[in-house]
Structure formats: C-alpha cells, structure tokens
Amino acid sequence: MLKLLLIIIYLAFISLGLPDAILGSAWPMIHQDLDVSISSAGIATMIVAGGTIISSFFSSKLISRFGTGKVTAFSVSLTAAGLLGIYFSPSFIWICLLGIPLGLGAGAVDSALNNFVAIHYEAKHMNWLHCFWGIGATSGPFIMSLYLLKENGWRMGYATIGIIQAVLAISLFISLPLWKKFEVKDSEDENNCSDVKVSMLLKLPGAKPALISFFCYCSVELTAGLWVSSYLVVKTGLSAELAAKWVSLYYLGITVGRFLAGFLAMKLNNKQMIRIGQIIAISGVILLAIPLPNNMQLAGIILIGLGCAPIYPAMLHETPNRFGKELSQGIMGIQMATAYVGSTFVPPLFGMLSKFSGFGILPVFLLILLILMVVTSERVSKVCSDNKNIKVEC
C-alpha cells in the first residue's frame, strides 16, 4: 500500500512543478492579448507567491483537522480550478484573482507532501521526488510552447495543464482511503501536536536558525537562476543567447543532481548531504567570481546547480529528526513559508541593489547567503539533539 501511495506522490510532485514556469513562458503573448504592460506579470506572480506563503504557514492546522490526503487532493483541485479558470479569463484582473487559488493550493500541498514523505519514506525518495518536481517544471513550458504559435494558444496551454491537474485531483480523491490508513497509524504512534502554537515552535532550540537556512537556500537558488544570465552578459560579454543556454544547464544541474543525490543518500545521512551540497555550491560561486576563461565560469554555474541539488531535500527530510515527528508538520509549514519568502523577495531585492552596485556583486551576494546558510545549518545540527527532551503544550 505504501508503494502505491508513493507512486501517487511522485505524480503529485510532477503536478506541483507543472504550473510554476508557464506564466513566464506564455506572458509575451498574454500581455499583448489582454493589452497590459509586460511588467504586469510581476503583480500576478506576487499574488501567487502571497497565497503560497499564507497556505504554507497555516498548513499544519489544515492537515491536523482534515488529514494529509484530503488537504493534498483539495489543494490540487484548487490549482486545477485556477488553471482552467485562466483559460476563460477575459482580462488581466481575472488572472490576478485566479492566482489566489493557484497560490493557496501550491503552498498547502507542498508542505503536506514534504512532511508526509519525510516521516514515511527514505531520504532517497525525497531527492527523487524533487527531481520529479523539476521534470514537471520543465514540462510545463514545453507543453505551453506547443500551443503558443496558435491563436489564443496560451489559453489552450493553461487548459491542457489544468486538465492534467484535474485528473490528478480525481486520482487523489480516489486514493483517500490509503492516506487515511497511514494517518490513523500516525495518530496512534505519535502525540498529535499539529495545533501547537507557532510561538512555541519558534522557541524550540534550532527552530530559528533552521528557518534562516531555508530562507538562505531558496534565496540562493532563485537569485542565481534569475540573474546569472544578466551577470554573464554584463561582466563577461557573453551573448544573451549563450547566457540563456548556460542558465538552462544550471537548472539541469539541479535536476540531475537530485537524481544522483537519491543514490548517494543511500550511503550518507542528511547532514552529510547538506554539507557536501554547500561545499560544492560555494566552490561554484567562487569559480563564477574569479576572472577565468568562460568555460570555467560555465563549470561554476553547473557546480552551483549540483551543489543546490541535495541541500533542500535533505533539509526537508531531516525535519522530523531535528524536531520530532509530532512537531514536524508545524515546523514544516513555517519552513516552507519562510523558504517562499526568500524565493519571492530576495531575487527582486538583488535586482534593485544591482542598479546601484552593478551585477558584478552577484557572486559576493550569493556567497554571503551561502555562508549564512552554512552557519545556521551547523547551528541546527548542534542544538537539535536536545529537542527530544522538550515538552510542548499541544
């Protein structure tokens, strides 16, 4: 039964990635069809991000009341409804409004699935699941590209991905008896502390540095992905076309790295995986900063991607070990919300900073975030062994 549920979760992770990059792919056509400025995409993106942060933050209470299976199925239904609704959108305002269910659905299901996998499955599956998310994130723009040459093609792209999400939602509702079986077992094995107050969770030793490490990781991943291309063009004189191809290798490094990390996780524990990833990512940033031939900077970009690959899945999978299974869902929701704050606000913050300092500071900016992540990660590892002795009021 657990293997059948794992297959469903793998499909759900592909589904999580499908909508993430399609707005950017379709926006050149959308903004013309709806007669809005090209910069308006930022508004829609921020609305989706806001919904994601909110639903992640409150996911623990929802899962405590309804269970992981129901929250996952309903959340995917929300994203399907949002995607299908965009097909009918008569104006940009409707796209913004439909961004609310898209964000709320994405945040809740992300938090729910990550915690469920962290508790019930080995670390290798957490790596491979996030690799499958990368497959979804890559497939979304590809599916959209098949329709963009046609009139109103972006609408058909959204409809196709929405139908895929709807089919998955139906599958998740059908699978609810499986989820319920394991959720009942969890309630028998562990004290139910899903409703513990956020203020109490934040007082746990290691909680605050854990949040900072999640914030730093997502800030690094998204800032590098957004601005490395511009850095290469401005600082090295690389053509925009070649720089874009190099950035695709960065994301390929993350996806392939997570596939390989799944095998490595069979031999190493989460702490070791995090440290190895951090060392590789820092090495890549240093290569990017040093004025070396372009091929070495390409190697640096790939190393940053490979280094990022195991860090996030390992930190997620380590959550029950750090804070206990009974507290992991509450902590997981706050971690996911903090991660989304970093990925949403830090990349545009660097863009504003670069107007005054230039793109040359990108490696320094990334290095500072990575060093802060190393410090906070080590702090978590040092103090969280004491959490098992801490009692909280549920």
Automatic annotation (TrEMBL):
Database matches in SUPFAM superfamilies: MFS general substrate transporter (SSF103473)
Limits of the Major facilitator superfamily (MFS) profile domain: 5-381
Q: Does the keyword Transmembrane apply?
A: yes
- Membrane-spanning intervals of the chain: 40-59, 94-116, 128-149, 155-179, 210-234, 246-266, 273-292, 298-315, 327-350, 356-375
Q: Where in the cell is it found?
A: Cell membrane
An example of a GO molecular function for this protein is: transmembrane transporter activity
Indicate the principal place this protein occupies in or around the cell: membrane
- One Gene Ontology term, aspect cellular component: plasma membrane
Superkingdom assignment:
Bacteria
Instruction: Note the topology in the membrane.
Output: Multi-pass membrane protein
**Which Pfam families does the record cross-reference, listed alphabetically?**
MFS_1
| Keyword terms, alphabetized | Membrane, Transmembrane, Transmembrane helix, Transport
Family, per entry: Belongs to the major facilitator superfamily.
Matching entries from PANTHER family are given as: BYPASS OF STOP CODON PROTEIN 6 (PTHR23514:SF3)
Q: Which protein is depicted?
A: Fucose permease
| Organism of derivation | Romboutsia lituseburensis DSM 797
